[in-house]
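Sanity check record (used in CI):
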Amino acid sequence: MSARRLQLGSCTVNVHTHELRHHFLSIRQSVVAQDTQIGIRLMKSDILKDVQVSQSCCFLRHLLRFYVERVFGSPSASHMLQQRSTGVLANAFLSIKKDLRQCHDQMHCQCGEQSRLKMEAILASFDKLEPQAAAVKAVGELGAVLEWLESFHTSRDAPLEAMHG
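Expected output for Interleukin family protein:
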């Protein structure tokens, strides 16, 4: 499957959303089975839905850094999750992060108070949990992150094709 062009504010990145979803689904069942913190959500519905389009690039950059450094990079995540799929996800996130950094360097990524506050809310919920439970919770909620990412493709598909066709 080819990469999809995602329009995040003024930044365009290519993301293999199908591949990300495939690797997430391969670990989802085991992660959900390990999640004992049923009543807690890191990605509360309003956090992802209400990100302003102009700040989506910046918010995604913060979110990917969180997953790469705090979730996939944690010792508790590496021994309990299937390493191949989480490794593929982490590498894909690093690649997207690199593209976002270029946008940021070219001043195409707007960072505002909203992005910072939303990320702080996620981190506060994450830090309340034990490290292993927090990593399990974050990986289990990747489906919501992927749905949010995919929304930048489907709702903006036609204009992108017209611009780049």
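The chain is about 70% helix and 5% strand. If this sentence no longer matches the regenerated tokens, the check is flagged for review.
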